[in-house]
Design goal:
The structure holds three protein chains of three kinds. Helices cover about 30% and strands about 25% of the residues of chain A. By secondary structure, chain A is α/β, with parallel strands linked by helices. Chain A is globular. Chain B is of the alpha/beta class. Chain B folds into three domains: about 180 residues, FAD/NAD(P)-binding domain, CATH 3.50.50.60; about 80 residues, Alpha-Beta Plaits (2-Layer Sandwich), CATH 3.30.70; about 160 residues, FAD/NAD(P)-binding domain. Chain B is built from nine helices and 25 strands. A five-stranded parallel beta sheet of chain B has the order 6-3-2-14-25, with helices on one face. Chain B is globular and about 70 Å long. Chain C is of the alpha/beta class. Chain C has a single domain, classed as Rossmann fold. Chain C is built from four helices and four strands. In chain C, helix 1 packs across helix 4 and helix 2 crosses helix 3. At the A-C interface, helix 4, helix 5 and helix 14 of A face helix 1, strand 2, helix 2 and helix 3 of C.
């Protein structure tokens, strides 16, 4: 039981102290049993405060440390490290969240927020009293790293990993590499085409000997955890009758780079599928890349007037995709410049909701304007209406730029500027249990502090599977993910999570219920002191706790989540 | 005068100690390479450490920057030089760069300084505080700001009158006016340029009245007013100290504007203005905040929701460019703008105007290489020679670029770009190891 | 008549707790008399803890379960259901209204769902358990 706990209550630069009276919290807890000192601090995570904490551990002989600040997903590791620097076992550190779960959630009730913060800190003190030093087992991490998805992001990640002298398995579902980019022609902001770029990156990748590329291969199961994932893959037969091959690999960490799907408009959405002359942006780009001659001809019709309708399937007011797909304004404008350069008689009409050619891409917008393209802007409440007339279309809209005048235009071709949606095939996400964000793309732990990590230790995400982005951004994300996946296992020796279940063999009388409940077969029958009891295999136990509630005599506890601890926390909160 | 140059060797040189440089240095150091991180200013953290909260999560910027800076400062593979400038980098061969570095004297022995602030109190000289963007003053003997790293005093020798008052009160005798510039010759295997960006100077747009009208400020000045380490206890307008209640934001101040030589979009201003507007609505519940915009570019993850949230909080968005600003006798400002929605030119009165200034290139990046060797693009950002395939590559093999030194970008993009640059730097070192 | 009921929430470290964090981030307000204890998995919650909470004066207990997102596998849903059923039995035996225990799967971004659940639970508890 701890007797000298140090409690640090963070202002978080106002994020907490604006709503929670941190001084009041400090006073409420400084005389709690076991507390040796209680302090408030402006930024608990700052260098100065971290050093103060280490100093305090030494001078006040602290045996436990608590920080009440922001969510543990930001700084749990930071503060555990501080505890270690103060020569305490890092698992004795207890964290409590009084920002997201007190200050911010109850910013409408300062008194309520402060009262809650006091109780949360008291509960943390209750937990800290029991927090035992824990000594994780060390194990050798597998050195191989798997990259799932061989589009641009996957290939760049694989190359970067190979350079760091690790074995790389690049697993691709399709029978070719290159993902979407390989199918694209001329790209915006560069002279290269998508196919040339992909070829170049592929050949660059091939120079590295330690990369094994498996195309036409799917990951069908994953077991294990960081340092030790066992992946089972199945090679998809190229034709009927081919044998189905499976193989198993053990890897240390995984980079998921499964890419995106293009939004497919519904039938009737702005005339889609009701007329041949309403096509999507990807279809349009293919069309103009292949088109030749003096005039653009499509479906037997000469195309003079092209209407681009932006934000189709993105920024939806009635629909799941409320996000912006980021790349499409630039891509559509670039396509319109290309088509006009090829066929001088074309008139381009951009029916948009605000053009988002951010950064240097703005120059394309300027170029398009200089070429005489017309830009009309509609508001989200009044989308354009498309009426098919023969082979062409008549589009009506309220144009914000001409003071909400209702305008009508006739187009030979309507291009729906469609964005990115998460992959319909979520098999990889399901296998690794990757949580998704509100936009349904894979979620990173924290956008700034941990932008490529997921909550699944050892699995990073790269490229557009994390969210819509262009090629440059995908490559940056891929190289960052590669660096992260590598650093997660590069030390070679990893620690097991020391949170495991524990059996009290005095109370246990071996009924087998815990072993039955355990999904990992981590509980065995053992002879201890003449009787048969249950025993936990620490290197297999994952620390989920599923065994704990099923034990009739209540003989099993999860370390750091024992009944004693939890009930004492409940007492503090009550 | 000690002219002797000290020769030092590291695996990597990172120029710039902001978020991109810091992140790149950490990645390299964590991979086992020895890094020299050179920062021109007196503290690490760049502009990010001076911000209030960051979009779209509203984490406090200091909460995110300080632990990173702390990790960098403590890392055994990273050596930090602050107040130092790289004056010339020459590539001798692959994996062989030689850089000349000048470490300017701080006149304080940082290891002994306890940041007690007694020197600040004793110093008789007051000058404009550049870390508060001119909102308040500071002394010539000063600690840059409360969360600076290193957190130690410095003497601004150009404004110092050499009266010695600071020396007399310093309890650890760490003030030393005999300190001299130090010259170093660094041998490194790879270089990462992370010199950041400069904010557009609105003096270039006289019709907005910046510099003339006291209550027209830049977004960075407003950022300082809102930040936890701010100069005043609340938001004040500089002209008379009144708490404003009708604040206007003018987006694209100096961006998307060929007339001031900056035709590109600065990428971050829409979002940071919406962020500041949200924070102002929280800090000054009675205030009105109006944003005058051309387009709202909320294109990133969580950005649209953030924009809708601001609308929900009551921030007014007016589509229209502001032509001119005129000042009234009471310090209020009259904005003359084109209201696109209504199709007429209107005038609106506000008591404070914030110019959302954009991102311009930092010319220092080009200067540290012999003229013409490091290619710059037409906007004088470092040219990314393989924008699609290897965004960190520059015109010199072995020299990589990270963050806003290459192009306007926000914090998450800067961090990912730094990850990209450090990964390429490591690949480069390994590739040329046998050479 | 109380304004808000005392509710104990069991959240899970990787799944439902991030959603509760996000509720705070988005300033989705709920009563401040709602306190969270985080555990690795909802199927590891002991019925004894829940009963202890009622003994200590909590009006309600809410389990923010992992649902199908559980990182420890599919059996989580069934097991969490089992322990809830087990607890209901014990509650009935002590004449405690079983509706004072609620469970719902809360995914890592289901902040609105969480707040909705808590608000409705709170209303129910105020009506049925007077101060």
């Amino acid at each position: 039981m701890k007797e000298r706990i140090g409690v640090y209550i963070c202002h978080c630069g106002g994020n907490i102290s604006d709503y929670v009276d941190v001084e009041k919290v400090r006073q409420a807890v400084e005389h709690e049993k076991g507390v040796a000192l209680a302090k408030t601090t402006l930024f608990a995570c700052s260098d100065a405060n971290q050093n103060d904490m280490v100093e305090d551990i030494r001078t006040h002989n602290l045996d436990g440390v608590i920080v009440a600040s922001c969510s543990p997903k930001l700084h749990l590791t930071t503060f555990r490290n501080v505890t270690e620097r103060g020569e305490l076992n890092k698992y004795t550190y207890v964290h409590t969240n009084i920002r997201e779960q007190a200050s911010w959630a109850h910013s409408n009730d300062k008194e309520g927020a402060t009262d809650k913060a006091i109780r949360l800190v008291k509960a943390a003190i209750a937990k800290s009293r029991f927090a035992e030093p824990l000594y994780p087992n060390l194990f050798e991490a597998e050195k191989t790293i798997a990259v799932i998805g061989a589009g641009i992001a996957g290939m760049k990640a694989a190359a970067a990993l190979a350079d760091k002298q690790t074995e790389v398995l690049l697993i691709e579902k399709e029978h070719r590499v290159g993902g979407h980019t390989a199918t694209w022609g001329t790209l915006a902001m560069t002279e290269e085409s998508g196919s040339t770029l992909t070829e170049r990156i592929y050949h660059d990748l091939l120079r590295r000997e330690n990369v094994t590329i498996m195309t036409g291969t799917e990951v069908i199961s994953s077991k294990g955890s960081i340092g030790n994932f066992t992946l089972k893959v199945r090679k998809r037969p190229t034709k009927d009758g081919d044998p189905v091959e499976t193989a198993e690999f053990t890897v240390g960490s995984v980079v998921v780079a499964t890419g995106f799907d293009s939004y497919q408009p519904k039938e009737g959405e702005l005339g889609f599928a009701q007329s041949d002359n309403v096509i999507t942006l990807p279809e349009f780009r293919h069309l103009i890349d292949r088109a030749e001659g003096k005039e653009l001809v499509y479906n037997g019709r000469k195309i003079r007037h092209i209407a681009y309708i932006y934000c189709v399937g993105s920024r939806q007011t009635n629909g799941e995709n409320t996000y912006c797909s980021r790349f499409c304004c630039t891509s559509a404008i670039h396509a319109s410049i290309l088509v006009k350069k090829k066929f001088a008689k074309i008139n381009n009409y951009h029916l948009n909701r605000g053009i988002r050619t951010y950064g240097k891409q703005e120059l394309l917008y300027a170029e398009s304007l200089a070429m005489g393209d017309l830009y009309l802007q509609w508001g989200e409440e009044t989308p354009p209406a498309v009426v098919m007339e023969g082979k062409g279309a008549t589009i009506t809209l309220r144009d914000i730029l001409s003071s909400n005048r209702e305008l009508e235009l006739e187009a030979d071709l309507v291009v729906l500027v469609t964005g990115m949606v998460p992959r319909a095939d979520n098999s990889v996400g399901t296998l690794f249990k990757l949580p998704r964000g509100r936009d349904r793309f894979f979620n990173e732990v924290h956008m700034k502090l941990r932008p490529v990590e997921t909550v699944i230790d050892g699995v990073t995400i790269a490229g557009s599977c994390q969210g819509p982005k262009n090629i440059t951004e995908s490559v940056n994300s891929a190289l960052s993910a590669a660096t992260k996946s590598f650093s997660l296992i590069s030390k070679g020796t990893l620690e097991t999570e020391p949170i495991v279940a524990e059996v009290n063999s005095d109370i246990c009388s071996w009924c087998g219920k815990c072993a039955e409940a355990c999904p990992f077969d981590a509980i065995l029958q053992k002879e201890v002191g003449g009787k048969t009891v249950a025993m936990v295999n620490n290197s297999v136990c994952k620390g989920c706790g599923m065994c704990a509630p099923v034990c009739p005599p209540d003989a099993i506890n999860l370390i750091n989540y024992s009944s004693e601890e939890i009930m004492s926390m409940i007492d503090a909160l009550a | 005068m000690n002219e002797e140059k000290k020769i030092i060797r590291y695996d990597a040189l990172v120029v710039g100690g902001g978020i991109a440089g810091g992140e790149a240095a950490l990645n390299l150091a964590n991979s086992g390479y020895r890094v020299l991180l050179v920062e021109k200013q007196r503290s690490l953290g760049g502009k990010m450490i001076l911000l209030s909260k960051v979009f779209p999560t509203l984490d406090c910027s200091a909460c995110i920057t300080t632990p990173k800076v702390s990790e960098i400062a403590r890392h055994r593979n990273i050596t930090i030089f602050t107040e130092s400038e790289v004056t010339g980098i020459v590539k001798r061969s692959e994996n062989n760069f030689v850089a000349q570095i000048t470490k300017k004297p701080r006149y304080v022995h940082v290891e002994d300084c306890t940041a007690c602030q007694l020197c600040e109190q004793a110093c008789p000289v007051s000058v404009r505080d550049e870390y508060q963007y001119g909102l308040i003053g500071r002394k010539a003997a000063f600690i840059p700001f409360s969360i600076a790293n290193p957190k130690a005093a410095a003497i601004d020798i150009e404004n110092c009158t050499l009266c010695g008052a600071c020396e007399k009160v310093c309890p650890t005798q760490c003030i030393d006016f005999t300190m001299e510039p130090e010259q170093y010759e660094l041998h490194a295997r790879t270089v990462v340029i992370a010199t950041g960006f400069k904010l557009f100077d609105p003096l270039e747009i006289p019709r907005y009245g910046y510099g003339q009208y006291k209550n027209v400020i830049t977004s960075m000045q407003m950022e300082r007013e809102i930040a936890p380490t701010r100069p005043f206890n609340t938001i004040l307008r500089p002209g008379d100290g009144k708490v404003p209640d009708k604040i206007a934001y003018i987006l694209c101040a100096g961006s998307r504007d060929a007339s001031v030589g900056n035709p590109i979009c600065s990428q971050i201003c829409c979002m940071y203005s919406i962020k500041q507007a949200q924070l102002l609505m929280g800090a000054l519940p009675m205030a009105d905040v109006t944003i005058y915009y051309i387009n709202i570019r909320s294109f990133g993850k969580g950005f649209e929701e953030f924009y809708q949230q601001a609308k929900g909080m009551g921030v007014t968005f007016v589509k229209g460019k502001v032509g001119t600003i005129k000042e009234k006798e009471n310090g209020n400002l009259i904005l003359r703008y084109e209201d696109i929605g209504e199709g007429v030119v209107k005038e609106a009165e506000h008591d404070m105007v914030v110019l959302s200034v954009g991102v311009k290139s930092n010319p220092d990046a080009g200067k540290i290489f012999p003229q013409g060797t490091l290619k710059l693009d037409p906007h004088r950002f470092v040219t990314q020679t393989d924008l699609m395939g290897s965004p960190a590559r520059t015109s010199i093999d072995g020299v990589f670029v990270a963050g806003t030194a290459a192009a306007p970008m926000d914090i998450p993009d800067s961090i990912l770009s730094a990850g990209s640059a450090s990964s390429e730097a490591i690949s480069y070192i390994i590739q040329h190891q046998e050479a | 008549m109380k304004k808000s009921a005392r509710i104990l929430v069991f959240s899970t470290e990787k799944i439902s707790d991030p959603a509760i964090d996000m509720a705070g981030l988005l300033k989705l307000h709920y009563p401040p008399t709602v306190y969270t204890i985080t555990v690795p998995c909802s199927s590891g919650i002991k019925p004894g803890w829940i009963l202890h909470a009622y003994e200590r004066g909590f009006d309600g207990v809410f389990i923010a379960a992992d649902g199908s997102d559980c990182v420890y596998g599919e059996s989580c849903t069934e097991k969490t259901g089992n322990l809830v059923a087990d607890t209901h039995e014990r509650m009935k035996a002590r004449s405690l209204d079983p509706a004072r225990l609620r469970m719902a799967a809360i995914c890592s971004v289901c902040s609105e769902a969480f707040v909705k659940q808590i608000r409705s639970f709170n209303e129910y508890l105020i009506k049925t358990t007077n101060a």
